[in-house]
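User: My instructor asked us to take a sequence, write out its structure as tokens, and then describe one feature of it. I'm not sure where to start. Here is the sequence I was given:
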Amino acid sequence: MEKFALNIPEGGQGSIFPRRDRVITRLLRRTAIALLLCFGLYVCVNRFAVTEGRLPSYLTPEEALYNGHTKASTTKIPLEAHIMSKCPDARDCLQQLIVPAMEQISDKVEFQLSMIASVSNQSSEVICKHGPSECIGDMLLLCAANLPFPPQPKGTAASDSALVETGDQQRTPTIRSLGFANCLVKSYSNIPSRELVEGCALEHGIDFDALNQCASQQDDDVDDDYSPSHRADKPISGIALLRESALHSAALSVKTSCTVRVDEKVWCVRDGGVWKDCVGDGEGSQVSVLVNEVKTLWEQRN
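Assistant: Let's start with the prediction itself. The structure tokens for your sequence are:
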């Protein structure tokens, strides 16, 4: 608050001020009181906003919507897409079903993008169907979804950039990571071109340097526990994220890119350029059908 200095003649008695000075003094005093009241109101409003779960200042309303900043008691519906980054069916799946649906139900789902790959139980080796470049693409997608948000300041130690899924540290908003994935997979044949990756990162607000660091991070300890509850003291490793994601898909017996799962059940499969095994006699491939199903499940549980 601005401080006002009054010039008091020697003797220091306010009563010796001319009338004009006394009027100015009263105005200054009232101004100071008004500023204090405004400041107090500002503090109260912001404290109320925090306690009421208002949006963090670094999130736009759209990002908050995609990232699930809703009431803490809300039960979200699991929505998952299992893909291979260099697969044309993954491109179609994201563009024709996932992204359009998420534009309508993002606040009602817990979205996850999972990878399909072969993982060795004896080593850290991961084999991707479309070659090593696909493994890089898979890691980039997983890294983008798991980077700390807001981004860590430049020069932050790797150990300080670890993924933390609880507490104050949040992951990349889904609107950004899904947008990045859609951008990358749309040009899947060019993965992992630096120009493509950097362009998609810039377009969707992903820190390219952090993305590159994550994808380049080596993690060869097969016995290392990289589950979410044990990540706080680890730098984010793209290969570890890929191993974990591929094992998750394998445990669910998901082998086809793209397989969409809703509420832990297979909803629809995109394979060979066509939709297969979709619920509702094939109607599950329609955006409106998926949206209505999620809304129905959400209303039943909330």
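For the description part of your assignment, you could build on this observation: The chain has a mean pLDDT of 79. Try explaining in your own words what that tells you about the chain.
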